[in-house]
Amino acid sequence: MSAGTIADAQAGIPDVVRLTPNFDVDSLVRDVQALRAEQAADWKLQKTFVTDDHLVETELDWHIMPLRSTGGDKARTDPGGPGLVSFADTSHTKLAPHLHAVMRAIPSPLRSVRLMALGPDTYGPDHFDNKYALTWGIARLHVPVITLPEAKLFFGQTPYVWEAGSLWFGNFARTHRIENSGRSHRVHFVLDVQVTEALFDLFPPEVRAELPFDKIMVNRDEQPLRPSALHQVAFEVPKSFTDWEEADGEFLIDQPTVPSEIRVQDGRLVLHYDGAPYAGLVHIGDNEFRFQGWTDERTVQVVDDGGQRRVVLRTRVGKQVRTLALPATPQSV
User: Fold this and answer.
1) What's the distance, CA 312 to chain centroid?
2) Is pTM beyond 0.90 here?
3) At a CB cut-off of 8 Å and minimum separation 6, what does 154 contact?
4) Closest CA to 32 of 145, 112, 111, 120
5) pLDDT (tens digit, 9 = 90+) per residue, 127-147?
6) Quick check: 219 and 295 in contact, CB under 8 A?
7) Cβ atoms of residues 161 and 243 within 8 Å
8) Distances from the Cα of 167 to the Cα of 25, 120, 142, 205, 227, angstroms
């Protein structure tokens, strides 16, 4: 997806917003020091999650300590994405009670949560984080822990040095970069959050009143479901729908398809692409499912229409919904 397309989708959403509450800096610093002293080897280089699960490691001095990750794996320094396992706290939280308290203070479900240490004399390129934005149901929050004037975050040409202990929303789908021209590390506590109505209680009332909620996607709560024969179907999916980084609406264009199935495995529903398991399915109501580890940006719904089975694919950008109905074949239980 191009930077221009993403910028259009973000119109009216602010680059940065200071949220509430604030946190005690000395307590947070003690937690970081404990993790540096006792878990030094577990600070790993930052990795980027992409559709094919290939994790790309940064070449910058940018080390990560995950306190919540895919499957609770303390080696996962990436932000995670659709897959077979959910997010879970890592064992590092036991050494960081004050950071863990920050996590519990966020009123929406947490995705990945990471300490991110930007080394001295380090300069990152301009980039944007594809689909990590309110538009697609994710908010990225920062709590600066160890700061210095020379360590800056730029949105466009505007530099920011946020006060330690404060809580910030950043619109990282916009073009941004980081730099640290100082002589010590800058450490931020970065929390990726599933967007729900409760999240906006942290925003100042005057900012909340001006937010373009037609461009914000609010995720639905998971709903209980017992998998049944209804859900076990085979169908053909447009290839781009298997790529969560696809341009919005691309799956509606004629293109090659991928054989797909929904199966019951270990008491839960799993979506398979081309014979291989791709993602668990999370029920959000009316037999509609988002992918495990992702948002309502991309869903699959199973429909029984007078004995004829269909699968409905949907993608969302804010309040806009794109829909494609496909014939489906029931599978034996």
Assistant:
1) 23
2) yes
3) 160, 176, 177, 178, 179
4) 145
5) 888 889 999 999 999 999 999
6) yes
7) no
8) 12, 23, 6, 16, 40
